[in-house]
Write a structure and sequence with these properties.
By secondary structure, the chain is mainly alpha-helical. 80% of the residues lie in helices and 4% in strands. The radius of gyration is 20 Å and the shape is globular.
Length: 246
C-alpha cells in the first residue's frame, strides 16, 4: 500500500496514466464499433445484455492478461518463419483477428447491399444472429484487441498498477459509450456501411501489423474521424432538404 501511495504521489505517474488512458480509449474504439454492429443484429431485448457481457469480457481478458504480463511480453518473440518473415504469437493472433474482421465486415456489407443473396459463400439460412454466436464472436475479438492493448500498455509504462487503472477506466468509458454509439448507428442506416468500412480498415491494419508493417495509428483514426465528419455533413444536408420539401 505504501508503495502505491508513493507511486501515485509522483506527477510523472499521473502523466503516464493520462497518456495510457487516452491511448487505451482510442484503441478501444475498434472494439466498440464491432460490438455495436454485432449487437444491433440481435433482438432489441438482448442487445443491452450482450453489450455488457462483451465489454465485461474485455475487462476480464485485459485484467487476466495483466496478471500474466511476463507471458504476454514473450508473445512478441518470433516462433515461426513465413516467407522470410519471423512471426510471433502476437503477430499470428493479429493476423487471425484481422482476417476474421475482414471476413465478417465483407459478409455484413454483402447482406446490406443484397438483403436476399443467392446461394453463395455468403449465404446463410438465417440473416439474424444468434445470441450465443454474437457473444462468442465478441469475446473472440475481445481477445485480439486485449492482447494488442496490453502489449501497447507494456510499451508505455513498467508499473502494473498504472496499467490496471488505465484498463478499468477504459472499459468504463466503453460501457458508457456502447449503447449511445449503437443507437446512433442504428438510427442512421448510412452509418452502418461506414462502420463496416471501418471494420475492413481495422482488419486490414491488423493483418499488416501482424506481418511487420507498422502503420501509425494516428493516420488510421484521423481518416476514420474525417469520414465521420463528412457523413455528419451529409446527414445535416439530407435533413435540411427533407425539411424544405415538407
Amino acid at each position: 500500500m505504501t508503495e502505491l501511495l508513493v507511486l501515485f504521489a509522483e506527477p510523472a505517474t499521473w502523466a503516464a496514466l493520462a497518456a495510457l488512458i487516452a491511448m487505451e480509449v482510442v484503441l478501444g474504439i475498434d472494439n466498440l464499433i464491432f460490438i455495436s454492429i454485432l449487437t444491433n443484429k440481435l433482438p432489441e431485448h438482448q442487445r443491452l445484455t450482450a453489450r455488457r457481457l462483451g465489454i465485461a469480457g474485455a475487462l476480464v481478458l485485459r485484467l487476466g492478461l495483466l496478471a500474466t504480463i511476463s507471458f504476454i511480453v514473450q508473445l512478441t518473440t518470433p516462433v515461426i518463419d513465413v516467407f522470410g518473415q519471423g512471426l510471433s504469437w502476437r503477430d499470428i493472433i493479429l493476423i487471425a483477428g484481422g482476417l476474421f474482421l475482414v471476413w465478417k465486415a465483407t459478409k455484413e456489407i454483402h447482406h446490406s447491399v443484397d438483403p436476399e443473396p443467392n446461394e453463395d459463400m455468403f449465404a446463410t439460412k438465417a440473416v439474424s444472429l444468434g445470441y450465443a454466436a454474437a457473444i462468442g464472436q465478441i469475446l473472440l475479438l475481445d481477445m485480439v484487441f486485449s492482447i494488442d492493448s496490453i502489449i501497447t500498455a507494456v510499451g508505455m509504462t513498467e508499473h502494473l498498477p498504472i496499467m490496471v487503472v488505465a484498463v478499468v477506466v477504459t472499459v468504463i468509458v466503453m460501457l458508457v459509450a456502447a449503447t449511445p454509439l449503437a443507437n446512433f448507428i442504428q438510427a442512421n442506416p448510412t452509418l452502418v456501411m461506414l462502420a463496416l468500412g471501418f471494420l475492413l480498415l481495422i482488419g486490414t491494419t491488423l493483418i499488416a501489423e501482424g506481418f511487420g508493417a507498422k502503420i501509425p495509428k494516428g493516420y488510421i483514426y484521423a481518416a476514420m474521424a474525417f469520414s465521420v465528419f463528412i457523413e455528419i455533413l451529409n446527414m445535416l444536408a439530407r435533413k435540411r432538404k427533407s425539411k424544405k420539401s415538407a
